[in-house]
């Protein structure tokens, strides 16, 4: 490719990047400033903020997410402001970046216009399953997509040294992604096996691919090893290991009815894109591109690895679907380049229109169900003047600790860790005893959320209810679509 052609190609991709960036902000702006998008991400913001005050994750604030996720939120707090809009803008940049990498992969079998449509659809689709804010996959999908692109580049060479270098970069990205969420493991295994096969194909001797595999595994595990070494140096290796690797195995299963409901919601979110993937496979538009067959086969295998990673955990929360949309968007991209009877254009238009409508309905429905900025500020305004001791969020969003600058009643500020039965043997302590201790400390304000989860621990609830009846009064009730946030204040005569 001569210099003129390279310049034209570079400008084309700059235009694609700009389109995807504008699309990401235009699509996601509906949630900007809303602290109530999801309980997980507002907890991550709380942890990132408290890290600047000396709190050490797992030791002072307990959770089982990798340290990399909390470091992202801690870094976001350096941007200033209140942190909420800032984390959402950073997440939007990550979403746009992921869409761009998806387009760079898909162009090998779909053309630049179809690849750009696939990138926009990725941004829309993640908003249907909890990805309109800063959930962990919104961040790590960019790293995994980059790993996928590098692995595909390895398919295009027979040079063992180049394959090794590309494998090192791939595994470094995956190692960093592991420190955002460990479920990346299954996609990482797929990429690793593909790279080992390529290494063997390039030299046909067992020694080199074996050495490559050991090198790549070491690089992938390096970020986690460094995190463990840091905690070991501070005398908390056991705490780190339990939170990151052991506690998840002690969590009990969710109620079957809840699991089936989540699966149903996941299917509603992915059935149209999966049909698009099937059509791309049947119509075979990717055969018109020199690298189409390799890229499409790779995307389908990658999607299979992502689906396996989703299914194996069995809890099926909506945001667990988010990693599927990277290989899925790559795989359905060729459909939009299919020219016969304008099927490709119709499919692109239909999916963009239905995805846009579904995104807006989902975002507004979520705000009615969970609350928005106005609700969060109203709750915080009730809490702040009543704080003489710590706030205790028994059930609801830990963002209220953040918004009110309250002290934490213990090292388990994420409410579900203490109030759900499935967590009762998986946090390293007796949650009922911890709830009793918190209530004995006489928090000045207690936040509850009705109706309670069907998996709520009845022993913990009984302790809280008894103390609420004895020593607290209802200060405010904030009704939502089918739920309510309740704020209780401690009576002055108690």
Summarize the structure in short.
The protein is built from 19 helices and four strands.
Structure description:
The protein has 494 residues and is mainly alpha-helical. It folds into two domains: 14-367, no CATH class; 373-490. Helices cover 65% and strands 5% of the residues. The protein has 19 helices and four strands. It has helices at 3-28, 39-51, 67-76, 84-110, 112-126, 136-155, 160-178, 185-203, 207-233, 237-250, 256-283, 292-313, 325-332, 343-370, 373-383, 399-404, 415-419, 431-440, 458-471; strands at residues 391-393, 445-450, 472-479, 484-490. A four-stranded mixed β-sheet has the order 1-2-4-3. Helix 4 (84-110) packs antiparallel against helix 5 and helix 6 runs parallel beside helix 8. The protein is globular, with a radius of gyration of 24 Å. The model has no long low-confidence stretch (mean pLDDT 96).
Keywords, please?
494 residues, mainly alpha, 2 domains, 19 helices, 4 strands, 65% helix
* Shape summary: globular
What percentage of amino acids are in beta strands? under 5%
Largest sheet: 4 strands, mixed
Count of separate DSSP helical elements: 19
How many runs of DSSP E, i.e. beta strands?
4
In the predicted model, the low-confidence regions spanning at least 5 consecutive residues are none
Radius of gyration: 24 Å
Please give the alpha-carbon distance between the first and last residues: 80 Å
Label the structural class.
mainly alpha
